Amino acid sequence: MPRFISMTAPIAMAAANLRLRHWPGWLTEADASLENLLNEVPWQQESIRLFGRRHPLPRLTCWMADPGCDYSYSGARQIPQPWSHAVLALRERLGALGGSRFNSVLLNLYRDGRDGMGWHADDEPELDPTAPIASLSLGASRSFRFKPKGKGSHQDERQGLELGHGDLLLMDPPTQQFWLHEVPRRRRVERPRLNLTFRVVRRQGA
Ligand SMILES: O=C(O)CCC(=O)C(=O)O
């Protein structure tokens, strides 16, 4: 087992159609990875159009993918960046775990607690619904919350966990089909947080 990861048993969380596996502190060299990624990733400020006006997303992003893995979200087509060394190394270590070969990753940089991500599911038609999504977190600890799709939001049905430095979360099918997730804003958080969600995109024409 490489020193780079810690492979104790994950904490499993399950509710109806919610399948999560959480490895706190999975990446033992999280400090070095955070520094490398902050420096080597070509972070971009994307915007979305709402009611005819463009608004900057409350975070910086980058999409890295194999050729042919096109992807759109929030109404914007993502232009893939080449895989960086540090991200490729992380993908290699994840490959064995999910049983899938992740061919793409969305990186999000939350500069501080004023950045966040609203309720959504990673259920775009380009994504393979039979593959897990592997989410790796670095930097400041932030809440990650789930609520069932298609209902008024009953507080007692919500699920949540805290994602810390080096934590790995696997979201297994059919989670994305039935649940939404969010990273709420936390005004008191001053440090940056970086998250990578490794995905399997169905290639064009496949
Ligand atoms: O930052 C996170 O933990 C989650 C990111 C996320 O929900 C996404 O990339 O779809």
Folded structure, characterized:
The chain is mainly β. The protein has a single domain, classed as Jelly Rolls (Sandwich). It has helices spanning 30-40, 85-98, 175-178, and strands at 11-15, 18-23, 47-50, 53-56, 60-65, 71-73, 76-78, 104-110, 117-120, 133-139, 142-148, 159-163, 168-172, 179-183, 193-199. Strands 1-2-13-10-15-8-5 form a seven-stranded antiparallel β-sheet. β3 (47-50) and β4 form a beta hairpin. The longest helix has 14 residues, at 85-98. The structure holds 2-oxoglutaric acid. The site of 2-oxoglutaric acid has 12 residues, from β8, β10, β14 and β15.
Summarize the structure.
By secondary structure, this protein is mainly beta. The chain is 14% helix and 38% strand.
